[in-house]
Design brief:
Number of strands: 26
Largest sheet: 12 strands, antiparallel
Number of domains: 4
Helix content: 25-40%
Shape: elongated
CATH superfamily of the largest domain: P-loop containing nucleotide triphosphate hydrolases
Distance between the termini: 47 Å
Oligomer: single chain
Amino acid sequence: MLPYWDIHENIMVLRDGRLVYGVYFEPPSHIHYTDDDLLRRQSTLKSVFDLAVPDNETFRTYTSLRGALEEEIEDTRRYAEVCPDPVLKELTLTRAQMLEAKILSGEVSHWKFFATVTVTPPSDLRFSIDEPPSPEELQRAVETAQGYQVALVAQMTAAGFAAQPMTRQYVFAECFYWLNPGWPVSPEFIPQAEREVRSLRRGRADHLTLLRQLSCTVVDNLPTSGPIVGDRYVEVISLGRLPEYTETGYLKQVTEGLHGTYYVIVEATRENDYDVSNELEKKKTDLFTRVRAPGVIPNGRAKNLLEDVEAAQGLEGVESRFEAGVSVVLVAQSQQELERMKRRARANLTRLRAGAPISYGFQSIAQYFALAPFTANQSHFLFQPYTSNVIDLFPPISPWKGFDEGAITFQSRDKSLIRFDLFTPQTRTAHFAIFAPTGSGKTVLALSLFNAHLTKYPDSVLVVSDAKKDFQYFFRSLKDHAIIEFGYNSQNRFNIFDLEEGAVEPDGTKLSALIQFIRLFVERPADAREKDYEDVAISEAILATYRQFKEEERKPQLGDVQKMLSAIEAYADTGRNMELEVIGAARSVAIRLRKGLGASPLAPIVDCQSNVKLTARRIYLSVYGIPEGDDLMKRVAHHIAKGIQWKVAKEYPRRVKKFIFMDEFENMIQTEEEVADVKRMLRVFRSFGVSFGIGTQDPAASDYFGALKDSFAHLFVGGFSESVARGSAERRGVVEILSLPKVMEEKLPTLGNLQDKYSEFALLTLAANGSGGRVGDIIQVQESKLALWLFNSSNAEVEKKDRYVEQAGGDVLRGVKSLVDDLYGSYV
């Protein structure tokens, strides 16, 4: 029943001499297009049919929804197995088990789109298996098909699709998957020149044909419910008629809610415009005599048909006519699954106002082979729509496929797997931002990202600054960690005047940082000249203090600089007396520094010797202990944290991945100087191999960055309400603030958060070339129960974790595992 002859130079040659070529294509992501945008895309899609499909040739699109394979998360397991941190290893392995369970239950699938087009050689150049061509004839026919293939790729690219020609292995693989649906991976195609197997059959050398390579599965057509292909149950459902009216992108309705293995096949054979014109004229002449001839009583049905024919004639030169059909192929692992899939597919099809869908039962085998990829057969139930209707059968948008490789695998709302990695050559930078209301799952998302990336890059460095202790349990559980708390009750001390090992004087960068630190206490004067005097006085006092302490074991600190400012009268490098204005500025600075010294509650924190040396690779900076409204203490903490972040960025080799994240960004970064610090980080951190991230409830915080907003290559946006997403005349909405596609006004309010299941975010990634804008999808952030209880940070959850961890003697992982065991009996 199969017309395959052979695959020659990426083109399928059929037994009757026709050729078929294939093209993989990826429609743009559906997060970009409103219904109005889809209507406007019709003209670009129309060009694909009008310019790329010749008369009498058949164009087929295959929207393939296939069950995911366990092999797809092998890399996740591989990263976990070699990870030296036992907690990261266990969390990643339990996540892999969770994904495997979803794969085995058929919950997650992959979308793939490809198209095939027939090429019929002219009558004087026709050949067949009975009249084999010469090598020259075959080469000429194949080159013609390749020319059409290049043209179709160009047309699809112009219409906004990512298209690529299918190689011989891809052609073979798609045919193989169709005929052997139970095989997870197709074997390598053996071309004609390599087919002679070194064995004898009946005394002669064995030549392995294409059909023998493809025929690896037995077909049982005895069951009345439908054929069994190997270990898979198969059924075909076709549209009994096309919809009364079509809607752009209605293919999405056909596939909504489906998971498992499906194919939605649209076939369209373009009819010759001249033949269509003659046919319509003959019909019109016949109907005219039955409707408008003198003395004839008009027939109502004939009158309606005449109006249809005249309307069709009005489309001549504007629209082409096709023979077209739509079928859905279901491939199930059991009879019960087939029934479930069939009910869902039939329910979707009946929503199209296209009549009851046709099921074939045991006759599905004929339709199944007729619809096989790279054949020129025509299936049943073909209709004659025009171009504008045919393009409504074409998939204009699709789920986002993610990256080629990733540290973490998300599940999209469409139940497909999305690989994601902050560090990938497919995007401009590794920086990211999370914008979401409180309770949306920001913390779980951030920790999922970091858990996965630290597992993939075990020598990487992570620095998180946080105002709510949300990340504390995660860091406490890690092997190589340091938790630094800021606040009046903190025991951690950092002397801002410490130098790098071996240095006796600050370099320009350190001196600039020290001047900025002193400026936290000494406000800049409005007069530029006075500011210059103060800057000179401060820098001279700092340098003089370092020279004074050059031979001492104790390091200089803020109080020593204050004393120097009070006493300094001469420049240290020349010995010349200072100008009176500079001396006056020094005394003024010394007086204002007193608010951080002596009996000041800030003094033990800013005028101290260091008792912490940071060597850990996972550093948590908590500002939870700083009272709300204590802006000076917040600025001091930010300055120390900024120094740690820059130290991490610069000290480690560039090949080492570094992750720096600031949670509750809008509360931690408030002054112009702090915003300027973050802007500098955005500009240069990419050169140091840093992924800089922020988390915030307020999208307007992105206004701080101005044109640097695009430096955040990855955006995660949570479920804002409709009024906040759209905005109003008085207040800008989230979509406008973040420059999101217009359709996100409809999408964001629908993002859900199912307790103990998943949180939904819109993921938008800026492509490396920037030409296509942002791509992405709606993702469901889903973690194992073990990870969720380690990551979650609500009061009730933390209180319960505290009790279990205390019972485990402070072992975080053991305590959380006991908690999860008691609640669920399973970590997954």
